[in-house]
TrEMBL record:
The record marks E368 as: Important for beta-aspartyl-AMP intermediate formation. Residues 2-213 form the Glutamine amidotransferase type-2 domain. Its EC number is 6.3.5.4. This is asparagine synthase (glutamine-hydrolyzing). Transmembrane segments: none annotated. It comes from Azospirillum palustre.
Amino acid sequence: MCGVAGVLAGSRAEPAGLDELKRMIAMLGHRGPDGYGFYRDDRIGLAHARLSIVGLAGGFQPIHNEDRTLWISFNGEIFNHVELRRELEARGHRFYTQTDTEVIVHAFEEYGPATWAKLNGQFAICLWDTTRRELWLVRDRLGILPLFYARRGDHLVFASEAKSLFGGGRVDPAFDPARLAQVFTHWSTAPHGSVFAGVESVPAATAIRVDSTLALHVDRYWQPDFATDPSLAKLSLDEAADRLEEKLLDAIRLRLRADVPVGVYISGGLDSSVIAALARKLDTTHMHSFGVRFTDAGFDETPQQRLVAGHVGTEHHDILCSPEDIQAALPDVIRHGEMPLVRTAPAPLFLLSRLVRESGIRVVLSGEGADEWLAGYDIFKEDKVRRFWARQPDSKARPKLLGRVHPFAAVNGQKDSPLWQAFFKRGMMETEETFYAHRTRWRNTAWSQRLLSADVQATANDAAFEAHVAAHLPDGWSRWSPLARSQWAEIATFMTPYLLSAQGDRVAMANSIEVRYPFLDPAVDDLCAALPDRVKMLGLRDKLALRRLAARHLPAEIFQRPKRPYRAPMTTALFGDGAPDYVRDLLSPDALARYGLTDAAAVSALADKAHRQNGRMAGEREEMALVGTLTLQMLARYVHDELPQSIRDQRAALDNAEIHVLEDLAGNARTAAPQPTAA
């Protein structure tokens, strides 16, 4: 994967200068440390930072078609590029590189916008059609890779990360207070936005065509269908496992395609363990695996990780993550993630991707997506219990089923308490509400908004987040089962905007590591959506088809193990006697007043409480509120105080990099000779 950036000028505007493009792409050097490429004509400037994975020689972008009428700057991987290339060559197309990138321009030449649905991959595409004078900004089906844009006057700027937009100088890094407030309820902004004013995100499964007037034409080229396929309705559990294994093997086989070694993450849980086992079935050569350990036993899964690694036969590497490690990593995580966090969980994953890089590996497989597509999260169990309880709201027995949910939380009898039951009973009768399964979580997290300033709170509009998601629900959503509806809500509101960003792309690409997700393969997802609910969740037993598959390849200690959410220490790592200096600094009255985003009195009171209790808070919502406030202050400091120097430093570093420049400023499809060392 790589970094992309560019500027499209209106028909009467000046095109972007080369130095502006260099400032933009320099901010993405972590995404592509292997060299930089540029294309300019009288309307557009495209820039690219390259991370070499496929087609190591001759793969510098932007890349063009035969007659140089199509130009692309591309971030990602097209896993079915071999098959598409073969098909396109049979139709007369001729290639000049071995890259998957070139396949896209030839496919677009052949199929037009129908191309996007043909791509099996994870991608952010910036494609310039010189004939029609149109720009395409396209994102993969599930939004694995980021792509942002902003309109400024008679120019449209776009890039993999917002900091690149700021680096060019056309976009000011101002916060959008309403979207900041969204993070303190939903963990992220709505899928089409960012926390910065005027900076938008291309939604998942969306192609935006920008015409010659800079008007945006938005097309959603794919949507899921969770209606059970009649041909699958009577599948036995073993047959469902057979189908799932077949699709996963195909997905992993495609994702093992690379001109560099591919490793695998092993968390100790079911999902990554299945991927590791099937990957070893396909690739019997030497394979590296990676895992995070914790000094806090409450978060550690070392025995399970080592059991899986030994069982499948990988050379395993791990990091032992302490509170001090989380403290050291968190500022970098926020700088790369460009969003406040209400959890510290991305920090250990940032450290893990650094270990991958130091081990000489550039690509790893990961197990994300299984919980969403195969119903592994406790939120689906909550939904089921609450719906069951709602049919007899006065029952004393039904709410006791909540004691079987969240096995790693609220122990020592708390799950039998009236308080626990009252927490889940609120809104219980509103079973037709669009976000029924998620309302409890969002209401709990929204408590954090009380730490925001009055001005920010005044803009808070959680309904806008929900209205956007509701307006883009797939056709037929209302006819799906309650489980299917909550699964898609989880994918659209949590997996895409938070999980695949904060815990996926951003922390991995910070260290130039590409993560690939077999469970997010189109064929795997289409199968999972079409499977009957009973092979995903039966009663409160989860991921049945996947567990049956895992029983064929893994020890019982793994395939029978209850779901354990990935978590990391929060306030216990950041507050109290071992708190880093930056915590008191960023949460001091002066710093809180400087940025004006928080309620200084409320923050100080809660932070003082956390310090007195050595970080041990009464509940998770207080922890999330403090982490959210601290990381918001980190982001504000980076944007307002550190970003200008970072832009200068990164631009200077580009002067010593390998650079390729192609120009056609007269609009004559001419190109300048490559300049491999030009500044």
